[in-house]
Amino acid sequence: xxxxxxxxxxxxxxxEFNKPYFKDLMDFVSDxxxxxxxxPPKSQIFNAFNYCTFNDVKVVIIGQDPYHxxxxxxxxxxxxxxxxxxxxxxxxIFKELKNDLGxxxxxxGNLMPWAKQGVLLLNATLTVRAHQAGxxxxxGWETFTDAVIKTINDEKSNVIFLLWGGFAKKKNKLIxxxxxxxxxxxxxxxxxxxxxxxxxxxxxxxxxxxxxxxGQNLIDWTLK
Length: 224
Description:
The chain contains nine helices and six strands, in the order H-H-E-H-E-H-H-E-E-H-E-H-E-H-H. It is an alpha/beta fold. It has a single domain, classed as 3-Layer(aba) Sandwich (Uracil-DNA Glycosylase, subunit E), CATH 3.40.470. The strands form two sheets. The protein has a four-stranded parallel β-sheet. A two-stranded antiparallel ribbon has the order 1-4. Strand 5, helix 7 and strand 6 form a beta-alpha-beta unit. Keywords: Cytoplasm, DNA damage, DNA repair, Glycosidase, Hydrolase.
């Protein structure tokens, strides 16, 4: 299986590619894509890295699993392709964006403009079988993406990690809170949001406030 991943990342995480677990993972993914409908398209599996280079990373948002319905997943967590109906979690992300920064609710659910500004939109598991949520979990992806988080932690400083929900918060153990900024809240899913754990967290304005303090350019959260 070809690894279409940006060269800026390869030199930092290439040791993972040679480990037995990763070779087993690639065999599994190749077999799944050959025999079943899987998402995102094979060429987009590593889009999180291809639209946000290692040097550009200043914010990390951690998701769990790609969307598993046809045409949704594009390799960026919480993001969907142009023209695709916004899933419930993305709807709540955009509602909080409007409440927090007054940004008009966007028509497009494609978060690529965020990624291009240095927001790494990283799912813990990068692939999924169609209509079967979690079907590619515990096959090795989590080991790989944990290694990515550790690499960012070790080799960069003042990165802002947005940990939304219980799953993402578990990644806090991989992050040195003295080197980086961790902002935690509930998950934007309807279950969490309707219980009061999401709305009002102001994570977007707080992220920009923190970026100012560490001398970084703000993220333009607007989606044209």
